[in-house]
Design goal:
The chain is mostly helical. Helix content is 53%, strand content 9%.
Amino acid sequence: MTAQTVLAEFKALGIHVELRGNGSLYVAPKKCLTPELIEDVRQHKAELIALLALERLRRLKGYTLPDGRMHVARELAERTRFLTEPGAILVALQDFERELISLGGEHDPELSEAVALVEPAFPGTQLVKFTRSKQ
């Protein structure tokens, strides 16, 4: 089983998975986990974290806020620009999503679909460009 098939299996079973700040994966409801799935998670943990980070990033692209526009892409880039480990990136993305929700933001599936349709037409396009400062 690959990391992608593990995530697909989780979705099919209604299992929620996220990375905790201590680096562990939180999975619920635990009653749905079989010993085989637990072993697959252990074997593919690093890949699962990277896939979860990409999935969360795609989701964040579809957020809207009630009081108008927020420069979500720029803020997201600022918060993650010096992070290199997938686990740290995923935790930052999860925290960012919680903050957006606390501000009244919500995921807009139609906006996500529109972004997904446009992105392949412009491969490699950057919404925000940053240069690394010498530290």
